[in-house]
Amino acid sequence: MKKKYEVLFYIDKLSTKKDQNDPSKMVFSTKELASHLNIQRSNLSAILNELVRENKLEKIAGRPVLYKIHNKLDEDDSIFNQLIGFNGSLAKSIQDIKSTLLYPGKKPVILLSGESGTGKSLLAKKIYEFSKEKGLINENGQLVKLNCKYFMNDETMIKNLFIDYGKAALEKAKNGMIYFDNVHLIPEKYKSIIYDLIEMSSLKENNFMVVLSSDCFNENDLKSNALDNISIKIDLPSLDKRGLVERMELVQGCFKKEARKIDKSIVIEPETLECLLLYHCKNNIKQLVNDISSACSHAFLKNLDNNSNVYVYLDDFPIYVKKGFIFYKEKSTEINRLISHDFLYYYSKDSIEKIKIKESTSAVYEHLEKQDTSLVDKSLLLKNKYNQLISSYRQYIDKEKINELNISKYIPQEIIDIVKEFLDSSSQKLKRVFPQEVFIVLSLHLTKIINNKQIDSVKNLV
């Protein structure tokens, strides 16, 4: 099975190197491939025909018979495609891992490097699953994980686990994979055990793969013989480097997972999503997941006595999450593309639904009074609402070409006079001059609030 994927990967690799604008150069004969891959033509022919039956290669009749890639390898790699960022921040890393795994030769040793919480353990698991699917390790081969942080301060435990258990781990991992997490925490004198395992992995009778991970990789921490045996080093980006689109996917996935756990829909306000996209996560994805899980459990406890949806408010999160508002202004354009501010987000175990918020503009202030938030938090929330308000009014002003000369077409004269009087008084007290935009925005906003109040009064009378 491994040979089959070696052949497919090699053809795919050659295809990307050839002139893709000329389809005639994207085809290969059995003779050409046999010389490159050092496989007997009869064996190669059987492999190529099997790949044709699996719809991975296309066979072109003639003399000689030619073959070409039917679909790119990336299109059906469902295992790595389960990772958020597989076609974004992780795309190159995944391609490098696949290249290393599928290239003919001895089993590779992979080092995953990145800050705490960036997803190294999850990627190691996907490497194991991918290797198993492609026949690179035995179908019954196990994934043996050793987390080095649990024995970093206990010399006796290190000896027991690495010297005695090391042999058992080796036996258990035969035809499978050993994953050493937090390898940088192992004391220097015990690192030689890992080096020995790396060398032993290439022996035919052992036949297992080794993956290492480190939060702070330093080449000086590894001996030269260990570095020589490492096939590839993969650097995982921190959460801040992954962009807001991928972070939104992570947040959405977390809420769906929590909804699945409690078997109820979870309702989130747009302001909460904003903060989750913007606050600083010192421990990256792991912290984001833990903060969301903790907030959902807090909200669930408050709704324990009823069967309704669980509303998770910003107040259910730690104070440092709320400070995400501080960064709204610099990221407002991208945030506004990702989040609809006049919708509530409903997360169920299978879907995400947006439902328009049916409330007047003044309800924002009433909502803030109901939440158990500090004055600082309310100030941040109001500041954020103000920025959103200005942005939406600017669009309307530009569209309608509203200015001080034609504003009376849109605003009652009474409101115009009130706003002018208010701004004149404020200018004198604050010793500053307000631009025309402030006058127009305030006039529009006040008109909208009054109109909404009048509509609500009519509804109550009816």
CATH architecture of the largest domain, please? 3-Layer(aba) Sandwich
How many separate domains?
4
In what order do the strands lie side by side in the largest sheet? 5-6-7-4-8
Shape: elongated
Number of discrete helical segments: 18
The fourth-level CATH homologous superfamily of the largest domain is P-loop containing nucleotide triphosphate hydrolases
Helix content: 40-55%
Instruction: Tell me the β content.
Output: 5-15%
Q: What is the oligomeric state here?
A: single chain
Sheet bearing the most strands, described?
Answer: 5 strands, parallel
What sequence of helices (H) and strands (E) makes up the elements?
HEHHEEHHEHEHEHEHEHEHHEHHEEHHHH
Any low-confidence stretches, pLDDT <50, length ≥5? Answer: 72-76, 359-368, 454-462
Q: Kindly, what is the distance between the CA atoms of the first and last residues, rounded to a whole number of angstroms? A: 75 Å
Q: Please tally the β strands and state the result.
A: 12
Pfam families: Sigma54_activat
Protein name: Sigma 54-interacting transcriptional regulator
Keywords: ATP-binding, DNA-binding, Nucleotide-binding
InterPro entries: AAA+_ATPase, P-loop_NTPase, Sigma_54_int, Sigma_54_int_dom_ATP-bd_1, WH_DNA-bd_sf
